[in-house]
Amino acid sequence: MASWFTRATSNHTAQLIVTAVASGCVVGFAIVGLQEAKRRYRVEDIKASIPELSSNHKATRLTEYGAAADVFAPSKEDERGMAMAVRARQGDWDDDLILEQLARNRVFLKDEGLAKLRSCFIVIVGLGGVGSHCAASLARSGVSKMRLIDFDQVTLSSLNRHAVATLADVGTPKVHCIRRRLEQITPWVHFDCRNELFGEDSAGRQLGDLNGQKPDFVVDAIDNIGSKVALLNYCFENNIKVISSMGAGCKSDPTRILIGDISASTDDPLSKSTRRRLRAKGVKDGINVVFSTEKSGPGKAQLMPLAEDEFSKGSVSELGVLPDFRVRILPVLGTMPAIFGLCVANHVMLEITGYPHEYMPSKNREGMYDGIMGALQGLESRVAKAQDIEPTNLRIPMTPDDVGYLVEEVYNGRSVVSGLSTRLALSRWNAPPKGFVDTSIAGQKVSPLKLRDLVCMTKEEVVKHEKEVLKGDKSPEDLWGPEVAAKVEKRLQEEALFERFR
């Protein structure tokens, strides 16, 4: 081995090859090192050219969710207000001054009622037109502990309906805008600000205790259907008192605003969608809401249709910043959200203090639903018998709650044929196929009836429909006409969309 190495190194050609390889390696390492040095120099040069972000830089105003960031530059007035609030919350504030500020509430609610208000803990979710007026009113009235939850920031368009926002607040988080302004009015109030989107997965944390105290009341001022339903369902399941604001958009008549059970709320698309999804979760009543009975009409504001070029971009639900958030500007008269918010705050104060007040009763139509279900059971048995199927022990997969859902939410308590609201019943729209009864379960006969198979009519219309469509040879369109058939088809398609929530 040693002799081979000696011969190889003594060979002139081999020496040249080794020298060339070594030189190539040295040159290669030098080039790579130079390139790496240049790259690092360029990166450092780029970094050095980027200015430091100031507190009012645009890049700090949005989070990854499109929410406002927590960073903002307080003014001198804000700094004084925050300093005063810190002192007040630490107890360096004369209680006599607080009672003097709350004097009118004190004589109205008495000392016992005001004490309850001052010791309660309120959670407000949504700090737009409704929520901001509610929060401001509660703080001014004596509530001393509030959790504010909202992911959004103040915009120029917010200023037509927001309770306390100014031009200086545009671009800042709504929760901190509320806190900063109210600290200058009621510095003793403890604000727990959550600059985040409310969601079903985070409900337990967001509606949880504050220093060991459970929420005495939750205010729902959300305009996103998914979050709204998640909040109301969580409160219902966990026995937390809650009041929800329905839609103030396109409303203008303050005399039509009511407070009552959600089962009684009508004439509002937001309320209808909320009721339908809650019914799908088994919640049909027991939640108080503020709503308007005002109906749309000629000359009144309406939600404008989405432009065709927006539809061409794909699914409309994907056009918003977040799922289920509206992608069109909703016409809002600035006074109406304020009235809704004040009604909510008023209700919360009366509930917390135990002040005498009455609720709008729910419809209490359970007896009617039981009767409609019994009539539907009889109709299915007669249709089965007409097909020579023994109807004894025939069952239908329906409950009175399903009946109530169809009658109230899908058909708005009216016959799809005549529009009448009395002597209502349910019927199949199309005749069932031959041998439609399922007899695969021993000792039982089950009709494969689904909600989307049924329509709401008067009892007299059902008798005619049964004779000529379900047992006869006519089609529904032949019997009732193309206009009614188109209306039914629209309702059934709508129900198919909501079926995924059941």
Automatic annotation (TrEMBL):
Chief subcellular location: mitochondrion
MF annotations from Gene Ontology: ATP binding; tRNA threonylcarbamoyladenosine dehydratase; ubiquitin-like modifier activating enzyme activity
Matching SUPFAM superfamilies: Activating enzymes of the ubiquitin-like proteins
Pfam families from the UniProt entry: ThiF
Signal sequence segment: none
UniProt KW Protein biosynthesis keyword: no
Job description of the protein: Catalyzes the ATP-dependent dehydration of threonylcarbamoyladenosine at position 37 (t(6)A37) to form cyclic t(6)A37 (ct(6)A37) in tRNAs that read codons beginning with adenine.
Protein name, entry field: THIF-type NAD/FAD binding fold domain-containing protein
Organism expressing this protein natively: Pseudovirgaria hyperparasitica
